[in-house]
Amino acid sequence: MSASPQQPVISLSGVNKWYGQFHVLKDINLTVNKGEKIVICGPSGSGKSTLIRCINRLEEHQQGTIQIAGHELTNDLKNIELVRREVGMCFQHFNLFPHLTVLENCTLALVWVKKMPQKEAEQTAMQFLERVKIPEQAGKYPGQLSGGQQQRVAIARALCMTPQVMLFDEPTSALDPEMVREVLDVMTELANEGMTMICVTHEMGFAREVADRVIFMDMGEIIEESAPQAFFENPESDRTQLFLEQIL
Ligand code: ADP
Ligand code: MG
């Protein structure tokens, strides 16, 4: 799958989702072009995680269309598989396999999904562990690492699959303050290298520095979407203003 410069890498149109009776995503429209960096913020429960989980089909939407690099996300399992290879994801709680070493966490999908020979998978994994600056941790288990190191392993693991897009769901919110920077630095480097990214985060310094657009969600809706400077200095909506007052 390759996206031409004109073709959006991610495109959501009229997306609605319900959990039972609860309308969690309301008419979401969002286009992300190749190389764009989007930061999503908003109060707890506003649907941010649900939105990005829909983008790699960890959740199903009921109305509207989601396209990744031109492939529509439907119940077609083949399509879902294709899309998941193109979309890397990092979660708040890292979600590493605790019984596998750092290196094994990184090689697993390369060997089983991409059918890469073990030796080559290990070389690839080491390259990405070097990129997130923890090659020396390769033989350890996740439980032996700090939170910041574990999150960097999670990023390396996702990058091993050479995704076109990276999704981050509050990657630093479970970390002790002194470890937030090391993870944001890796994410910033990735952004500077041209990765297409959607980041749910309340790290507003990161948003100012890295985002092309900041999106504010509340109660399942996109309330506001603008360039960082406009977003922070001149928010259009009262709800955005109130939110910013609470977190800044
Ligand atoms: P955010 O990431 O912005 O905090 P979420 O997307 O996690 O918000 O959740 C949005 C809303 O959907 C919340 O009210 C949450 O309780 C509800 N929700 C999330 N997951 C489920 C689920 N699996 N079943 C039912 N309700 C859910
Ligand atoms: Mg969330």
UniProtKB/TrEMBL annotation:
- Keywords of this entry: Amino-acid transport, ATP-binding, Nucleotide-binding, Transport
All copies of the ABC transporter domain together span 10-244
Q: Which GO terms describe its cellular component?
A: plasma membrane
Keyword ATP-binding in record: yes
Q: What are the subcellular locations of this protein?
A: Cell inner membrane
Task: Give one GO term, molecular function aspect.
Answer: ATP hydrolysis activity
**Which top-level group of life is the source organism from?**
Bacteria
Question: How does this chain sit within the bilayer?
Answer: Peripheral membrane protein
A Pfam family of the record is ABC_tran
Task: Decide whether keyword ATP-binding is in the record.
Answer: yes
- Family affiliation: Belongs to the ABC transporter superfamily.
Cite the PANTHER family for this sequence: AMINO ACID IMPORT ATP-BINDING PROTEIN, PHOSPHONATES IMPORT ATP-BINDING PROTEIN PHNC
Query: Under which name does UniProt file this protein?
Result: ABC transporter ATP-binding protein
Question: From which source organism is this entry?
Answer: Photobacterium aquae
